[in-house]
């Protein structure tokens, strides 16, 4: 987790903004009239402070309950956009990183695990990279997490919400399917009606369409697909069985786990 703390002239934990040290009076150096850096340092302090605030706000928003409403989705999107804007401001500022921080961030962005958050190919690691480019990479990766990672979870929540609502509708009919026995001490269940409704639900979610696919997140017309590697990665991430990985068109999708429902039908 990137931790930005208060910026000052002395070192602090977190991301440190380094400045060239002023020569002591005993050193023999050539003097020249140069513009004061006070104004630039003040701007850098403001940029760091704003970024730190936006990071805290984004953490609070993104760690909240997974959204299932448009209002919560908008709140998360706004938090990510504000944080990205603050990091873009840092990319254009004079704030620099220590050699260790530069290396750690560069290594993190070159790690294979980052591919989970972005559909675009990972850039090849470079020997050197500027501090401004690192801030820009942080901003881009946060945007990628919002679009390619949290977006998938939001889609999963939406699909499963509809699925469980349909299952709940079936359970609400149970009262009408229970009939008293001949002796008044037993109860009969209309098994045929229950099975028919459960089979209809299974058949509905066995079909691959924009309303039944968990990954990739669906939008617009048609069904979007992913590579087998990407689909298997999300299959593992969502802790779903292999039966939820399905080939479709030129790629693969991950669908709702119907195993418990199918077993229920078999056991009735």
TrEMBL record:
Chain segments carrying region Disordered = 1-26
Q: Where found in the cell?
A: Secreted
Q: Which region is the signal sequence?
A: none
Any one cellular-component term (Gene Ontology)? extracellular region
User: Is Acetylation among the key words of this record?
Assistant: no
This protein's UniProt keywords = Coiled coil, Secreted, Virulence
Pfam families, alphabetized: T3SS_TC
Q: Does the keyword Coiled coil apply?
A: yes
What family is it from?
Belongs to the invasin protein D family.
Q: Which NCBIfam families match?
A: SipD_IpaD_SspD
- What's the protein called, per UniProt? SPI-1 type III secretion system needle tip complex protein SipD
């Amino acid at each position: 987790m990137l931790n930005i703390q208060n910026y000052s002239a002395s070192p602090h934990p977190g991301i440190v903004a380094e400045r060239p040290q002023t020569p002591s009076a005993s050193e023999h150096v050539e003097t020249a009239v140069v513009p004061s850096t006070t104004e630039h340092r003040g701007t850098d302090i403001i940029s760091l402070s704003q970024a730190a605030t936006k990071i805290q706000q984004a953490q609070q928003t993104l760690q909240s309950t997974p959204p299932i409403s448009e209002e919560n989705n908008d709140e998360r999107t706004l938090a990510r956009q504000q944080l990205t804007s603050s990091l873009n401001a840092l990319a254009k500022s004079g704030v620099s990183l220590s050699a260790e921080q530069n290396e750690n961030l560069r290594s993190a962005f070159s790690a294979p695990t980052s591919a989970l958050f972005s559909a675009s190919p990972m850039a090849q690691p470079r020997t050197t990279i500027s501090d401004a480019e690192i801030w820009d990479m942080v901003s881009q990766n946060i945007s990628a997490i919002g679009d390619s990672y949290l977006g998938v979870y939001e889609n999963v929540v939406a699909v499963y919400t509809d699925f469980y609502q349909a299952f709940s509708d079936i359970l609400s009919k149970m009262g009408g399917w229970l009939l008293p026995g001949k002796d008044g001490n037993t109860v009969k269940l209309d098994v045929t009606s229950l099975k028919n409704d459960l089979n209809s639900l299974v058949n509905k979610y066995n079909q691959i369409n924009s309303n039944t696919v968990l990954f990739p997140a669906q939008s617009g017309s048609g069904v979007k697909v992913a590579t087998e590697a990407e689909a298997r990665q999300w299959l593992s991430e969502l802790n779903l069985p292999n039966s939820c990985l399905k080939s479709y068109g030129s790629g693969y999708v991950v669908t709702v786990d119907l195993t418990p429902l199918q077993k229920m039908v078999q056991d009735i």
